Amino acid sequence: MVEVVAVIVVAVVVVVVVVVVVVVVVTVVVENLVVVAVACAYTLTGNAGTFQSPNYPDNYPNNAECSWLITTEPDTEVILEFTAFDLQTSRRCRDDAVSVYQVPSGFSESLPLRLRHICESGSYTNIRATGNRMYITLHTDGNGTAPGFSAQWSIFQVAAVVVVVVVAVAVGVVIVE
Ligand SMILES: [Ca+2]
């Protein structure tokens, strides 16, 4: 009888240990999974246009990784404006954040330069890339959302400015003479 009880006790202990180990392993695996519920990548071209965060003006989803690559005509510079911007506020943009990069003409030349890293609600205008490509990312974490943003881009025409300056100087020279 004592032997039977001992066997039952050992069996119960073994089962409990196995269950605990399984639960711990599953928990660790799940916590380390990179959960991306929403992934989106957009390629935008043209010298002007608009884009919004997912679901805008309703709240953006949790666990989203989105990107927008804007390419305008050669010899122009991209100018970006957030006409509306409302993200979950977090310290050092750890929870939800928007990053704006200027992209060099050749990816091998250098890494994209981050122009802005924003998570505070507000108005952001005249974000300018030196060049005709700009890359915008939205990262959101697992909880807490907000309406997000609406943005528009336009161009600064480098060639046009050079022409205007040359003409102005030429006219100035003629007038002086
Ligand atoms: Ca969030």
From TrEMBL:
Residue ranges occupied by any CUB domain in the UniProt entry: 40-156
Iron keyword on record: no
Protein known as: Tolloid-like protein 1
Keyword entries, A-Z: Disulfide bond, Membrane, Repeat, Transmembrane, Transmembrane helix
Organism domain of life: Eukaryota
Transmembrane segments: 6-26, 33-51, 155-176
Keyword Mitochondrion: no
InterPro entries: CUB_dom, Sperma_CUB_dom_sf
UniProt cross-references to Pfam families, sorted A to Z: CUB
